[in-house]
Known about the structure:
The chain has 457 residues and is of the alpha/beta class. The chain is built from twelve helices and 21 strands. It has helices spanning 14-25, 40-45, 47-66, 80-104, 181-193, 212-224, 278-281, 317-332, 361-367, 381-386, 415-427, 432-437, and strands spanning 5-10, 30-33, 108-110, 114-118, 121-124, 129-138, 142-144, 173-177, 196-201, 228-231, 235-240, 248-252, 257-260, 262-265, 269-271, 304-306, 346-348, 354-358, 371-378, 392-399, 405-411. The strands form five sheets. Strands 1, 2, 3, 4, 5, 6 and 16 form a seven-stranded mixed beta sheet that branches. The longest helix is centred in the N-terminal third of the chain and has 25 residues, at 80-104. The protein is globular and about 70 Å long. It starts with a strand and ends in a 20-residue tail after the last helix.
Amino acid sequence: xxxxxxxxxxxxxxxxxxxxxxxxxxxxxxxxAEEYRMGGTCVIRGCVPKKLMVYASAFAKDFKSAAGFGWTxxxxxxxxxxxxxxxxTEVSRLSRLYMMGQKNAGVTVYEERAELTGPQTLRLAxxxxxxxAEKILIATGGRPWRPEPGELPGVERTITSNxxxxxxxxxxxxxxxxGGYIAxxxxxxxxxxxxxxxxxxxxxxxLRGFDDDVRHHVQDGMAEAGIxxxxxxxxxxxxxxxxxxxxxRITLTDGETLDASTILMxxxxxxxxxxxxxEVAGVDMKDNGAVIVDDYSRTNVPSIWAVxxxxxxxxxxxxxxxxxxxxxxxxxxxxxxxxxxxxxxxxVFTQPExxxxxxxxxxxxxxxxxxxxxxxxxxxxxxxxxxxxxxVLMKMIVRxxxxxxxxxxxxxxDAAEMxxxxxxALKMGATKDQFDQTCAVHPSIAEELVTLTRKVx
Length: 457
């Protein structure tokens, strides 16, 4: 059978564009379809614009700290409209680069939605064009989830992390629902920018799934940042408050009410497979809509693969990129390989930020009979004169039998930068002795990684 393409990729996010580009460079006839803007969640409405907002919000603390170092700083003024306009310009630039990268690699780009009509056929929604491909890669990512109106009356008054970047006025009072990394990051962002900020979370401690010491340290930092934190509660309804400045009134499970100008629902994400045609093509999915794949990203249909957030394995941009590259090498490069999902470093851009790699203390205790935990907290040198009360947390989890480091967790300035290199060490199987034998860089926060002696268990 003759096909229009050797590979058709659905979705122009990080995993999809990497797979398409590599496969094309390896000689395949490749096409990719993206219904919105090339670059996906990370570039358009996730990592990149969010990190730029983190930078913007951190200046407020820097201005305050400068006085301790002898600087006299005038009263700073912040324009949310200017900041968001500049971020939008940068996002557009990056999206164009992603598009250019595909075309320069010889990939045919369709700027419209593609839907599966069979194991090796697709339909382009706008042009109604039918296309065949020998192999199809699903890389449609994820999307924010929020309750239906029947579950939460007034939910239509809320926005998600997709729309947060469209705000041109700084909210007078933003209320955020959720306790995951997206919720806590945006809570710090808006508090830093000067907005009255409240976070409502159904559990008692934010960042479920992270090390408990990290979770408590971050939660304490939220209070220091002036974020009003309400735990053990959820929204039950949202209605009109009658106030022009804060038009939304939220009722919580205990009957308390909150008036807000903006409500951000950050209560989770779902694989983006609605209406994609997976059922028509016979692709097996989980109850949450995730595409089920094996280690080689293969679905149960021999001609269809999936990578990235749509598989609900590890929802991180670098993971999607590695999965997409491994797929292309395997299917078109004669180099069968998988991506190892073990020991992946990651960061949460709270302020200060979180860097973590390997096992949490709870996970290590569940897996190993004897572990040692090293932990310290201290004030960073910059904060001694800067006046901040924030403290750095560093924690290392070690298997006693062979001294192998199983986990490293950091909360502090530049934690993301440090955890990247710690991730290399853990991936290589480094031991506590090897960390200790490494000469420290002084004075630095990172030197604590090689001088940790406070054994707490």
